[in-house]
Amino acid sequence: MKKLIFRLIVLSCAIQLCAADFPLVQNRTPVSYISVSGNAAPPVKYAGEELAAFLGKISGGTQVGFAASEKLYPIFLGTVADQSLRNKCDPRNVAALKKDGFILKADKNGLVILGKDPRGTLYGAYEVLKRYGGIRWITPGEDGEYFTIKPTIAVPEGEILCNPSFFHRSIFNGGCNINSFLKDTWPWMVRNNLVVEHYCSTMPESTKAYLHKIGATPIYGGHVFSFLLSSPEVPLDVLHRKQPEIFPLINGRRTFLEGQKYNPCTSNPETLKIMAENLCRFVEKTMEPGDIFLIGNNDGTGWCQCEKCLALDPPAEKAANSVSTRYWLFVNALARAVWKMHPEVRFWGWAYQNFHRVPLGVTPDPKITVELTYNNFCYRHKFDDPKCPVNAHFLSYFKEWAKSGNPLTTWEQIDAGISHAYQPVEEIFIERLKTYHKLGVAGPRLISRPLDGQYGNRKQTPLQLHTAYGMGQTLYLASRFLWDIQRDYRAEYEEANRLYYGKAWDGGMKEFRALLTRAALETPGCYGWGSTASPIGRCLDKPGVQEKLVALLAQAEKAASGDPKARKHVSIDKMFFQDVWLAARKNYLEGYRELKAYRKTAPIVIDGKADDPDWKQAEVATHFKILGSEAAKPARQQTFVRVAYEPEFLYFLIEGFEPEPDKLKADADPKLPEQRCGVWNDNSFEIFIHHPDLDNKYYHFIFNHKGLLYDSFVIPPGRDGADRYQSHAELKTALLPDRWVAEIKIPTAGLGMKCFDGASWRINVGRTRALRDGTVEISSLANGNFHNAQNFLPLSFAGKRITSSTGAETVSAPWKNGTFDFVHKYGREKMQKWIIPDSVGPGSYNLNTNTGKLEMCLHPGSATDYYARLEDGIFYQLYYGVFDTLDYRIRMRLSGHGTLGLRLFRYDYTTGKHKFINSIELVREIKLDSDEWKSYTFTYRKQFKNEIFALAFRHVDGTVNIDDVFITPVQ
C-alpha cells in the first residue's frame, strides 16, 4: 500500500502546473475549445482543424472540440482584420506584425493566435504545437513526425510576437508532374513555416481548394517566351510561316522556336504586342489578385542576332556576351503593357544564364521581383568566403542587385547541384542564409524532388526519389532558420538528427555525419550544379576515411535495429553513400580526368590541319580505352583530342593514328537522309556534348574520314529528337600517311547554351576504327564508354590560357604532367646512378644530380593515379610560363616524414635560348611528418618578363611524397 501511495504522489507532481500556466489538454482530456469565425479564411479554419487534431494526438487523448463552453479554456484564431481579437493583444505588437507573422497571447481569458494574415494564423497554430507540445516534423510523411506523448499541454501566461526573418521561404518541388498532389510534402512545408508554391493551372478543384486552405501561393510562368508567343488560334508553326520576322535571326536565317534553344526577336514591336495580348488572356482566365507570373526567357542562351536586337546591347555587355539590357527592356515593356489592364498582377523576372548582372542600359521596374538564378553556386564553401572564386564572383552580383531596389529572391539548385543530393552542406547553407539576410534578400527557393510526387513516364532513380531524405538536414534546418535566422545552429542540428536517427545517432551516425562533412568540405575545389571540377570521388582521398565511414554505417545499423524509423533512415544514408560516394570513388580511381579547353585567341581555319595557333597551345586528351574490355584496356591505335572555344562556337581537332589508311572503310551513302546513311558503321569519330541544362540528354555527332556528318539530339533511353536537330557544323577531314584528322566547328546556338568562361560541361569522344578487311576496334575517351552523359568527362572552359594541368601528352603546355600520372621508362643515360624501381619515372621531369632515389607510387585503390616519392637527389621541370606576367603561384600537395626544399633555376630567354642566370632557394625547408596529404602554396616574382625558370624538388632528409604540382600566373 505504501508503494502505491508513493507512485501516485510522483504522478501528481509530474502533471502539476504553475499558477500562470493555462492547460489546453489535461491528463489526456481536452480542457479547451477552439473558436474560429464562421466567415474566417480557409487557412484560419484549417489552423483550427490542425490544432484540434494534433493536441489530441500529442496528448494521447481525443481531439479538442469547437463547441464553446464556460467550463473550457477558449483558443481564439483569427487575423488582424478581426478587431475583437486585435484588441486582446498589445497594440505595439499588432503594429509590428509583418507578412506571415503572428502573436500568441495567453491569459485567463483565453489563448489568442492572431495572424497578420490567414497564413500567419496557420503558422501560429503550428507554433503552439511545436513550442508547447514538443512536436517536430523533420521530413515529410509519418516517419518524419516526432513527439513524445504529453498528457498535459499548457501555455504560459504572456504575449509573444513572431515575424519571419525572410518573407520568401519555399521549396520548388521539381522533377515530378506539375499537377502532382503532394499529400505529405505540402503539409510538411506549412508545418515548418514554409510557403507552398504551385505552378499548375489545370489541377482539380479539390486540389485547388486544399492549396487555398494551406495558404499556397500560385506562381505561373517560367520559361514562357514561346508559350506567350503562341496561342490555340495561331500556333508557333503557323506564326513562323506568316510572320517570320518575329522569330530570332540565327546564323543569317529566321529560326523556328524549336524547344527551348532560342528566344524570339524582342526588338520587334509585334513580338511584344502578341505576347502581351496572350498574357492578358492568361491572367483573365487563370490568375487571381496576388498571384505571381514569372517572365522568363526560353531555357537557352540563343538570342536574336538581327541588327536591331544587337543594337540594344551596351558595348560593355556585348563584350561580356551578356544580354541583360535586352532581357530587362522586354520584361519591363511586357509587364507595363499587362499592368494597363491588370495592375494587380505581381511580376517576377530573372537574373539568369547570360543576363546575370544588373543591366547597364535600363533600370528594372522596381515593382518586379528579381530571382537571382545563379545555378553554378559553390556549396562547398561559405557564400562570403573570399577564397572561393565561384562564390566571390556571384557575391559581387548580389551586391550589385542589392543596390537596385528590387525585391530579391534566389534559386538554390541543391537537388542535382551537389552530387545526387547527398552532400552534408547544411551548416554551409545556413551560413549562406545569414549572408542573404545581411544583404536584404527576401529569401530563397530550394530545389528538391518530392517523395510523394507523381512522375508518370519520367523514370526516376532511387537516389532521385529520395532527394528529400538525402538533403533532409539541409531542407529542415533551412526551414528553421528562414523563419528565425537567430536560432542556435548546434542545438537545432543536434535535436533534428537525434530525432531522425534515434539511437543510431549516438551509435555511429553522429560521427559518420561529422566525418562525411569534413571529407566533403575539406576537399579542394568548388562543387555545385554545372561544376564537376572537384569530383565527389576525390572526397575519399584521405587514408582511412572511406573505411571509417563504412564501419560507422555498420555500427549505426546495429544501434538502430530495434527502431524501424531509425533503421529506415540509416539504410537511406547507406544507399546514398554506396550509390553516390563509393560509386563516384570507383569511377574516379578507374578513369577520372579533368579536361580543359581554352578560349580561342586567333582565327581557326577549318581545313583539317593542326597548324592554327590555338591548336598548338591546346591541351591534348588521349588514353582511349576499348569498348567493353575488362579493366578498360588501352586502344591499340590511339586517338588525340584538342578542344577550343568562343561563346558562339565549340571547336574540336581529333587525330586518329592509323597504320593502314588505305584500308579505311567508308560505305555510308551521302545521298540518303543522314538518319539512314549508316555513317556509324564506317571508320568514324563520334563527339558527345552535354551541358548542365540538358539533364540526361546530349548532342551526338558522327562523321567518317570522308567528311559525311550525322548529328542528333539524344533523349535517353531512345533517340527522340534525333531527326529534328541540325547543328550547322562546319567539318573538314584529312587523310595522312600515319593518321586521319577531323576538324569541326559547332555553333553553340543549336546546343542551347553558349560556352562561358568558368563553366563546366561534359564531353566524350569515341572512335570506330573500321577497315575493309573486317578489322574493327571501338574505343573512347571516357574509359571505353560511349553513351550516357554520366560517363562523359568534365570539360572546363578555362578562359585565356594561363596554366596547364595534366600529363605529358600536353606537349605544348608550359607546365606538363603536374599530376605525375604520366609515367614512362627512363633510359640508362638519363638515370645515371639514380635508384628508380623498374626505371619508371615521371614524364616531362629531369634529374638534376648524378645520384638519387625516386619511386612512382600509386594512390590506394588506383591503377592510374601516381605520385612521386623522393628519398634522395633533386629533380626538376622547366616552366616557360607567360612572358607578360611577372608573378606566379606554385601549388602542390605533399605528405611523408622528411624535409623537402624547393629551388628555382633562373634563365634569360630574351634571345629564344636558355641563358642560365642563377639558382635560388624558393623554400629552404618544408618539414613533413604525416601520411595525410596537405596542400601548399608559394609565390614567385620574376625580375623581368623574358625570364623563365625551372622548379626543382630538393631532398633534404627522410621520405617526401609529391603530387599535383601546378604553376599559375597571377594576373
Structural description of this entry:
Helix 15 packs parallel to helix 18. Strand 40 and strand 41 form a beta hairpin. The relative contact order is 0.06. The strands form 8 sheets. Strands 21, 22, 23, 24, 25, 26, 27, 28, 29, 30, 31 and 32 form a 12-stranded mixed beta sheet that branches. Among the domains are: 144 residues, Chitobiase, domain 2, CATH 3.30.379; 123 residues, no CATH class; 203 residues, Sandwich (Immunoglobulin-like); 148 residues, Sandwich (Jelly Rolls), CATH 2.60.120.260. It starts with a helix and ends with a strand. Helices cover 27% and strands 28% of the residues. The radius of gyration is 32 Å and the shape is globular. With 971 residues, it is α/β, with parallel strands linked by helices.
Architecture of the domain at 595-797 in CATH?
Answer: Sandwich
Helix percent band: 25-40%
Q: How big is the Rg? A: 32 Å
Structural class, please? alpha/beta
What is the general shape?
globular
